[in-house]
Specification:
With 482 residues, the chain is of the alpha+beta class. The protein folds into 2 domains: 279 residues, Butyryl-CoA Dehydrogenase, subunit A, domain 2; 189 residues, Butyryl-CoA Dehydrogenase, subunit A, domain 3. The protein is 47% helix and 13% strand. It has 17 helices and 14 strands. It has a 6-stranded mixed beta sheet, with no helix packed on it. A 4-stranded mixed beta sheet has the order 5-8-9-12. A two-stranded antiparallel ribbon has the order 3-4. α6 crosses α7.
Length: 482
């Protein structure tokens, strides 16, 4: 298992990361990414610390590994995985969604059924199993890029002026050694900090586009791979006091460009199969385990949001108003409801082939739907409770560096039971959750975490158990007649 120091050393590996036109040579030292990298390193250290090892480290055949690589065979295994995810999420208050425990959920779920992949291409399942053990053994931090560029589909095989049929990642050549990839994949959340990325498809691929169905694991320092970051918020966070989340927990999002990248066959797990490129995640526990982690991570974020709501009403002296207490009670009830939905996924877990289990998928997708639909309205409620406090504060914390200004600040901005500094600190934190560009990104992130709204609806539609529900109506009507 990696230490934090070893993790930081391992990502100084020659990867090509762009911020606009700037090529970043070392993400662990660049002001746009340094604190984010240290946050990941801290996760590596903390999960191996003595007080966490009994839960966050598992063992099999004498090999120790992070519990998020544990293939669950019982409710107890799921509970151990849950607590591992919960602790990691609590360390970033749910604001780093693609933390090191996220993609291993997909990989571990897929690796419970390698026979599916062997049926699709000889030896692919064996390669998947070997890759799973390699990732587990080396404690790899992996991301996934399984979304195609927005609006990228072209009619037929229409080429652009550069002779490119589509900007979407596809196989452009193959030989005995492997495949050659060209094109873009989105959205590489966390990829800047990862060792490798998984490319694949969680969107349907239409017939005739078999070259786009490629599913493979790619080291991010390979020749021809480049990572194009969106605007990093850490770079504009002047201090942790003023922007405590932006400064430390911006996992960043990126496009990953592949320019004639050669990937060997032992890293290719699916190829030329439109029907299965998406289905592999649903025929295995991959998608359910990964989105269970997302539920847990969101619950930790919601805990912070609800706690902030209460603290803000204490600060602005609105907490004694009955209507405000009712609003706070409603927020607390919503947090409790989500926590109950998550625990229910484990309690009513489902059996899978090979003696494995996964969380209850119907409950998990219901919770995922709930998170997607409720994050923005909850934040609106907390903004209303907060009022105009954040814009009544000085521009930033530098006002406290001047003794004369600091004295005036404390004289005129303080409350009888709260210093001006403490008030400013609270409002800066709340604004970073609710109002900054970092906060805006999280609004978008939670709204589209697992796809647009109709996709969320479809997951629950498919798992609703309509036949069983129909029997309720039929049995009732069968009990009476004219």
């Amino acid at each position: 298992m990696l230490t934090g120091k070893e993790y930081l050393e391992s990502i100084r590996d020659g990867r090509r990361v762009y911020i606009g036109k700037e090529l970043v040579e070392d993400v662990t030292a660049h002001p746009a990414f340094e604190k984010g990298a240290r946050t990941i390193a801290d996760i590596y250290d903390r999960k191996a610390a003595a007080e966490n090892r009994d839960v966050m480290v598992s063992e099999e055949n004498g090999e120790e590994f992070s519990t998020y690589f544990l293939k669950p065979k019982s409710r107890e295994d799921l509970e151990k995985r849950y607590e591992t995810h919960r602790r990691i999420a609590s360390w970033t208050h749910g604001f780093m969604g693609r933390s090191p425990d996220n993609f291993p959920c997909y990989l571990t779920g897929l690796a419970t059924q390698p026979e599916i992949f062997n049926e699709l291409r000889e030896g692919a399942g064996d390669s998947l199993d070997a890759y799973y053990h390699k990732a587990r053994r080396n404690d790899l931090f992996m991301s996934h890029a399984v979304t195609n560029p927005q609006g990228s589909r072209r009619a037929g095989d229409q080429m652009d002026e550069a002779g490119i049929v589509s900007p979407t990642l596809r196989v452009v050549d193959q030989d005995e050694e492997g495949v050659t990839l060209n094109g873009l994949k989105m959205i590489g959340t966390g990829s800047i900090y990862c060792h490798e990325t998984w490319v694949g498809n969680l969107q349907p691929v239409p017939p005739g586009q078999e070259a786009e169905t490629i599913t493979a694991a790619v080291p991010l320092n390979l020749d021809g791979v480049s990572i194009w970051s969106r605007k990093p918020y850490e770079a504009t966070a002047n201090t942790e006091f003023d922007m405590p989340l932006s400064a430390r927990f911006d996992e960043t999002d990126a496009a990953i460009l592949f320019e004639n990248v050669k990937v060997p066959w032992d890293r290719v797990f699916l190829h030329d199969n439109v029907a299965m490129t998406r289905e592999i995640y649903f025929r295995t526990p991959g998608h359910s385990l990964a989105n269970h982690q997302a539920n847990i991570r969101f619950a930790e974020k919601l805990r912070l949001i609800v706690a902030l709501a209460h603290k803000l009403t204490q600060s602005n002296k609105a907490g004694a108003i009955p209507a405000v207490q009712s609003t706070l009670g409603n927020l607390a009830a919503q947090l409790g409801a989500l926590e109950g939905m998550i625990k229910g996924q484990i309690q009513d877990c489902e059996e899978m082939p090979g003696g494995f289990v996964t969380v209850n998928r119907r409950f998990m997708y219901a919770a995922l739907h709930w998170c997607t639909k409720n994050h923005s309205p909850i934040c609106d409620v907390v903004r209303e409770l907060m009022g105009g406090g954040p814009i009544q504060m000085p521009a930033d914390s530098s006002v406290m560096a001047d003794p004369d200004l600091y004295e005036k600040f404390e004289t005129y901005w303080s409350l009888p039971d709260q210093s001006a500094k403490d008030r400013m600190k609270l409002f800066r934190l709340a604004w970073d959750v609710l109002g900054t560009e970092f906060a805006g990104r999280h609004m978008l992130y939670e709204k589209f975490y697992a796809g647009p709204g109709f996709v969320m609806d479809l997951y629950s539609y498919q798992l609703a158990g309509w036949d069983e529900l129909a029997e309720i109506v039929d049995d009732l009507m069968a009990g009476y007649d004219l």
